Amino acid sequence: MINIKEYLFILFVLLTTSIAYAENKLFNKQSDEPIEITSNRMEAFNEKKLIVFSGNAIANKAIKY
Fold it and tell me: Using one digit for the tens of pLDDT, what is the confidence trace for 30-39?
């Protein structure tokens, strides 16, 4: 028979995984809104199609619900 600690552990795992799944679905919505990035330095690598922002880099994106 399952004791109370095992029952609470199973309940905790189920709740945390369901919350994580819900947050993942909520915050992974695609948006056409631009990403605004501010940083001290930007490096572009055209051949690799890569841009690296460094030094106090902050990225902001508007989320529409």
Answer: 667 788 999 9
